[in-house]
Please model this.
Amino acid sequence: MASNTKINRIPVKWVRDRAKAAYVKADKCFVCGSTTDLELHHLNSVTLLLNKWAAEKGYDIDTDEGILAVRDEFIEEHHTELYDLVFTLCNNHHVMLHNIYGKIPTAPSVPKQQKWLQLQKDKFEGNTAHQNFPTSTGSFFSAFY
Model:
């Protein structure tokens, strides 16, 4: 293999390294209010977004040089997904969410993740107002009770 095609680093790590300086992590878990073992959860998989974006643009991000040349453009075009559609979660709730939606949640799961997070927060706070409202996904909520 030629040295210029060798992958030295996973492309998404280059993006995260650049973007993380602007991440805003809350001081407590969105769901339970814990202040320990806090992590950021992106509702959209940065890996899936990056790979789809690069394919659509025809960019080669398989080398360090390739991803470094376009990562700022990606960050600019995906500001909402990288910075706004993010939740601070304790490790426990982060793991729970990924156990339900998978290691790399797909874009269609974003509204479901948001509903799940709000439901968990409501349950933790003892608010049951949202627990029985109808949904278009039918059995979606039954998986959590």
Q: What stands out?
A: The longest strand covers residues 38-42.
